[in-house]
C-alpha cells in the first residue's frame, strides 16, 4: 500500500475519532481520553511509516508495534480496521462477549496485534526483546512502542530503558504520549517526572519532541535516522483531543459517554 496523502489522513483521523466514541459508547465502558490523544501517532505509523501487510499479519519481516498503554485499544482497533486487518463492522463489538476486540489488546484473538498488553509499564520490555530479535534474526524490522506518560512511573519502564541503550537498539522507537493526565489526576501532582527529556537522554535515548497532533512533525521524527542508540519521540498531546467536553479533562480517562454525549461528540467530528 502506498502511503496516503496527509489531506486524506486528516479526514481519516476524524473517522477514527468517531469510531472511538461510537465503540466506547455502545460498549458502555472503555477509555476515551487516552484513545483520542494518540490517534495521529497511530495513523502516521500505520499509514505512512510501518512495513506491514494486512493480508499477511504474521509476516516475519514486518515491523512490530506494541501498544503499552493497552487501555487505548479502541484507537488501535479503528486504525487496524481502516488498514484492512479485519472488517469495519467488527468495531462495534468492542468488549462484547465472544468479540475479538477485547478491552485490552489480545494477540491470540485480534489480527495485527503483536503483543497482549494492559499491565502498564511492560510494553517497553517486550519491545526490547523484539528489537533484540530483529538483530539476532537478521530480519532488520523496526519496533515501535507507544507508552502513556502516567505509566512511566513504573520502575520496569526504566529498567527496559537501560537495556535498550545498553544493547544499542537503534531499531527501537519509543513514543511517549505526553498528555499530562492519568487516572488519578495531573501527572505532576500524582508523581512528578521532573525534566523528562533530560531523564530519557541520560538513559541513552536520542530524543525528539513534537506536537503529537502534527502529522508533519510526527512523520519527520519517525523518519529521523539514529545510530547505535534507541529513539524516543516525546509527543505532546491532549487527552480527549477532538471532543471539546473531553479535551484535557481527567474525568474522561476511563468513563464511557452516554447516548446524549455520544451524539454531541459525533456532531463535533467531521465524517470520512
Automatic annotation (TrEMBL):
<dbReference type="InterPro" id="IPR005474">
    <property type="entry name" value="Transketolase_N"/>
</dbReference>
<dbReference type="InterPro" id="IPR049557">
    <property type="entry name" value="Transketolase_CS"/>
</dbReference>
<protein>
    <submittedName>
        <fullName>1-deoxy-D-xylulose-5-phosphate synthase</fullName>
        <ecNumber>2.2.1.7</ecNumber>
    </submittedName>
</protein>
<feature type="domain" description="Transketolase N-terminal">
    <location>
        <begin position="14"/>
        <end position="266"/>
    </location>
</feature>
<keyword id="KW-0786">Thiamine pyrophosphate</keyword>
<dbReference type="GO" id="GO:0046872">
    <property type="term" value="F:metal ion binding"/>
</dbReference>
<keyword id="KW-0479">Metal-binding</keyword>
<keyword id="KW-0808">Transferase</keyword>
<comment type="similarity">
    <text>Belongs to the transketolase family.</text>
</comment>
<dbReference type="InterPro" id="IPR029061">
    <property type="entry name" value="THDP-binding"/>
</dbReference>
<dbReference type="Pfam" id="PF00456">
    <property type="entry name" value="Transketolase_N"/>
</dbReference>
<dbReference type="GO" id="GO:0008661">
    <property type="term" value="F:1-deoxy-D-xylulose-5-phosphate synthase activity"/>
</dbReference>
Amino acid at each position: 500500500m502506498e502511503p496516503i496523502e496527509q489531506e486524506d489522513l486528516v479526514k481519516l483521523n476524524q473517522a477514527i475519532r468517531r469510531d472511538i466514541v461510537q465503540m466506547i459508547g455502545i460498549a458502555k465502558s472503555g477509555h476515551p481520553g487516552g484513545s483520542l490523544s494518540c490517534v495521529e501517532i497511530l495513523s502516521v505509523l500505520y499509514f505512512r511509516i510501518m512495513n506491514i501487510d494486512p493480508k499477511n499479519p504474521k509476516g516475519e519481516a514486518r515491523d512490530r508495534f506494541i501498544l503499552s498503554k493497552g487501555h487505548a485499544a479502541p484507537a488501535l482497533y479503528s486504525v487496524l480496521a481502516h488498514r484492512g486487518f479485519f472488517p469495519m463492522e467488527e468495531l462495534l463489538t468492542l468488549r462484547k462477549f465472544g468479540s475479538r476486540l477485547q478491552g485490552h489488546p489480545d494477540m491470540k484473538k485480534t489480527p495485527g496485534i503483536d503483543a497482549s498488553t494492559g499491565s502498564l509499564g511492560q510494553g517497553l520490555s517486550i519491545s526490547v526483546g523484539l528489537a533484540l530479535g530483529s538483530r539476532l534474526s537478521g530480519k532488520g524490522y523496526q519496533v515501535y512502542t507507544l507508552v502513556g506518560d502516567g505509566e512511566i512511573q513504573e520502575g520496569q519502564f526504566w529498567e527496559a530503558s537501560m537495556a535498550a541503550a545498553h544493547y544499542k537498539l537503534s531499531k527501537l522507537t519509543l513514543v511517549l504520549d505526553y498528555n499530562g493526565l492519568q487516572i488519578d489526576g495531573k501527572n505532576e501532582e500524582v508523581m512528578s517526572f521532573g525534566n523528562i527529556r533530560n531523564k530519557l537522554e541520560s538513559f541513552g535515548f536520542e530524543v525528539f519532541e513534537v506536537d503529537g497532533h502534527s502529522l508533519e512533525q510526527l512523520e519527520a521524527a519517525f523518519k529521523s535516522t539514529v545510530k547505535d542508540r534507541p529513539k524516543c519521540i516525546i509527543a505532546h498531546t491532549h487527552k480527549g483531543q477532538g471532543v471539546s467536553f473531553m479535551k484535557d479533562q481527567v474525568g474522561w480517562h476511563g468513563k464511557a459517554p452516554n447516548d446524549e454525549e455520544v451524539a454531541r461528540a459525533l456532531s463535533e467530528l467531521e465524517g470520512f
